Amino acid sequence: MAKKNVKIETYSKEVTLRWYHQMMLMRRFEEKAGQLYGQQKIRGFCHLYIGQEAVAAGVESAITPEDYVITAYRDHGQALARGVSARACMAELYGKITGCSKGKGGSMHFFSKEHNFLGGHGIVGGQIPLGAGVAFAIKYREEKKVCICFFGDGAARQGALHEAFNMAMMWKLPVVFICENNLYAMGTSVERSSNVTDIWKIGLAYDMPAEPVNGMNVIEVHEATTKAVQRAKNGEGPTLLEIKTYRYRGHSMSDPAKYRTKEELEKYKELDPIANIKSYILENQLAKVEEIEAIDEEIKTIIADCVDFAEKSPYPDPSELYNDVYAEPNYPFIME
Amino acid sequence: MRIIQFREALREAMQEEMRRDPNVFLMGEEVAEYNGAYKVSQGMLEEFGSKRVIDTPISELGFAGIGVGAAMAGLRPIIEFMTFNFSLVAIDQVVNSAAKMLSMSGGQYNIPIVFRGPSGNAGQLGAQHSQCFENWYANCPGLKVVTPSNPYDAKGLLKTAIRDNDPVIFMESELMYGNKGEVPEHEYLIPIGKADIKKQGSDVTIVSFGKMVNLCLEACQALESEGIQAEMIDLMSLRPIDYDTLVQSVKKTNRCVIVEESWPLAAIAGELTYMIQKRAFDYLDAPILRVTGSDVPLPYAPTLIEAYLPNVKKIVHAVKQVMYRN
């Protein structure tokens, strides 16, 4: 982990409990999704966020609902952090019409325009130029907003990243690039993908301010992101944050993760971001154990409710097939 | 009517739409300070400034994606590829992002963007600068594909493309930029998805699009001198395709030749042939023939280019074959 002397101020009860709530919701949602995948209620590819929750939660608290977020295919956590309902997310995993992408996206393509959540994108690194483009639009319209553009350590090796970094920096676009480095691009470790294993250093090649951040601590994520967002909103351009995190599960549901050791996994579980914020809350006497337990109970209800909602929701009618392909109504598809 | 060049018609279309809508901007390699690699955007930097006419580094994947991202956030980008040959390094953003975004977001994010630039051969440019991509992009639901053949059509279609709320692939040709034609001073739009009958005739239908249309019109003249009245249809849009106009014409002439610059396999011609046999089988008096580029990468030597490309002689020959007049 990145060892840094971070001066951590005390955060309020409201903020810390919101973090706890969000992260616990992500954790329980993903655990349930994994279970339902095993039952074949959820199909296709499914990439779980367990272990990485502090990243989405710490970033969300540094931005406003008017700001934009775009990410890759491991997108459940970001959508929940943005405020997309567990119902809409679970229904999307089920492929139901009530899902956040009407059952047309699936696990990798959650979207919510209402929440300025610009999606889950399936081609590694493809969302990086898109995020820069959203920031281009912000600057073009002279708005005081930011686009948060997430990607994984694997995407750091894509050409799209380098092209987007170069232009974003040259044009001082209001974008914060956040690399969620969970150490493995599918099964290939960061060490096996480049000589440059400190991904934040890639930013330096473009004169982009960049730093590593401990992703197992929501407060450190929040503070680093807050600074970067401020820079962007002040017209000073992009920042690259390499947030060092870890996924407890495999790359996707079909991955037994044999490329890493049990010891490594256990080491990171001891750094668990949810346990981390929980002890922060209790040590600083921000809330009582009972209040935390009440949140746990509330989340249990939310999870049970979202599964029930997804189960009971209808699949898209076959007549939906030709909808939403063109904005133009009555586009003449080839039907014969 | 006044006569202007193809490149001027394109420029006027962009200028008029940029004056009309502040969300429209032009981005690409050499579009601003250099005034356009082919001078299409000449003078536009001066009029609109560097905020709206934007030079990029040589990063097609990056700026194509930035265009799509800007469109997600509500702008209406015109992205210029110096040639569509270079769009291959950007095709992920064109196909995976622009074309699929509305569908995979369940109807939430439409992408009002135009990708424009030349496609196909343009003299002795060698294999990597000479390919046609009309059929590649036309294959992809979510995109629209437009191919004008003269300045009038180019202006009207480009204006429509810029106003369209879906991604439009707009294909030009280096060889046509200097072509002159009548373009009125007043504003007009040409709808996407409508073919144009460039010449009426009763004996045979010749179908084409893009710069091959001009070759076909030459062939029509040669045929006329031999007493053959060909009907010439310019598809203008390759997604969607105006099958009705095509089928109606074939029902009248009972014969059809398709002319296309691209390679033959999985080309537009195959799709047109399918639809004609499906909808006008009983009207056909001869098998449909196609004249396409040869099934090889386009070489450099002029003799090989001559052998490769469709030309008037090949078109006339095909027409005579479908008329059993050899």
Characteristic terms for this protein:
heterodimer, A: alpha/beta, Rossmann fold, 6-stranded parallel beta sheet, B: 326 residues, alpha/beta, 7-stranded mixed beta sheet, 5-stranded mixed beta sheet, 14 strands, 37% helix, 17% strand
Descriptive notes:
The complex is a heterodimer of chains A (336) and B (326). Chain A is of the alpha/beta class and 336 residues long. Chain A has one domain (8-313): 3-Layer(aba) Sandwich (Rossmann fold). Helices cover 41% and strands 11% of the residues of chain A. Chain A contains 11 helices and 8 strands. In chain A, the strands form 2 sheets. In chain A, strands 2-1-3-4-8-7 form a 6-stranded parallel sheet, sandwiched between helices. Chain A has a two-stranded antiparallel sheet with strand order 5-6. In chain A, helix 1 (13-38) packs antiparallel against helix 3 (76-82). The longest helix of chain A has 26 residues, at 13-38. Chain A is globular and about 55 Å long. Chain B has 2 domains: 3-182, Rossmann fold, CATH 3.40.50; 196-322, Rossmann fold, CATH 3.40.50.920. In chain B, strand 2 (24-28), helix 2 (44-48) and strand 3 form a beta-alpha-beta unit. In chain B, helix 9 (243-253) packs across helix 10 (268-280). Chain B starts with a strand and ends with a helix. The model of chain B has no long low-confidence stretch (mean pLDDT 98). Chains A and B meet through helix 5 and helix 6 of A and helix 3, helix 4 and helix 5 of B.
